[in-house]
Design goal:
337 residues, Rossmann fold, UDP-galactose 4-epimerase, domain 1, seven-stranded parallel β-sheet, NAD(P)-dependent oxidoreductase, NAD(P)-bd_dom_sf, Epimerase_deHydtase
Length: 337
Amino acid sequence: MRVLVTGACGFVMSVFIRRFLQEHEEARVLALDVGEPDTAWSGHLADVAGRVDVERCDVRDRDRLATLFARHRPETVVHGATVTLVPEWEREDPGRFLDVNVMGTAAVLDAARRAGSVGRVVHVSSAAVYGAGDPGRTEPQDEDTPLEPDDMYGVSKVAAELVARRFAALYGMSVPIVRFTKVFGPMERPTSARTLMSLPYHLARALVAGTPLAVTPRTLRAAGDWISAVDVAAALGLLCTRPDVGSVAFNLAGGAAVPVPRLAELFGVEMVADPERAVADMDPALRSGKDGIYDVGRAARLLGWRPRDLAQQVGEYREWALAHWTPETLADPGGAT
């Protein structure tokens, strides 16, 4: 199987590539990214590097996409390229989200349908499509929850989903959509498209450094529906290989609200309320929409996928962090990758 992955040097896509190639010895991946792979990415994929072809490509460049699709003849595409939410970016250049996340998606889908070799495009969306949601809602949200984005990133993701659905209808393409949020795990690191790190990332750093983690006081009253990138990668692999998954959306999440103190306990890290030194801030009032709990029943029914126990997910990430980071590399701004 030949799989083309956009945004390949990013956090979740790098975890997916390694897992997919480890599980499918006959597979080969064409990794597209707008930038050069960093040393962390190259090291992460060292054991499967012989089956990874790396090409620089801006997903908005239709001519470049056409050339690469024709040369490599992929059978499946996982479209993960995106510009993620940074509030400053939204204010400074809101059009960037639409340009990359919407027009880039259209360009990838058009290249896929013209290639003649692609049978499926897995479109990576986001729980940002749900926006703030209904503040009074307490039950898990399924994929039919109204899409009411409240930032330009979410707006761009809703628009990209609509583009994906239209391509599926127009050309008979299989374009399943995945929505996830609060993802953590190996290979999370600052990049040109991602600058806001997850709470588990900060907890992992504190674990390696052997120091408490300073957060805002209200963060200690917050909760979240966290999911490991390894579990997300497993679902993406199923979407690449399972027949007849259609072009529907899938929530990928833990399916339960986990209080922040419990998350810290799983990491074995002490948290201290210190607004002056806080590296993380979560609002405990945000418990719905993109910050809510997700119903993952559709993925269970159609893919046979369920998230592992959170303790197992965190334990795996702890082991990875301790194996790849040291207090010395954490002290170097460019070292903890």
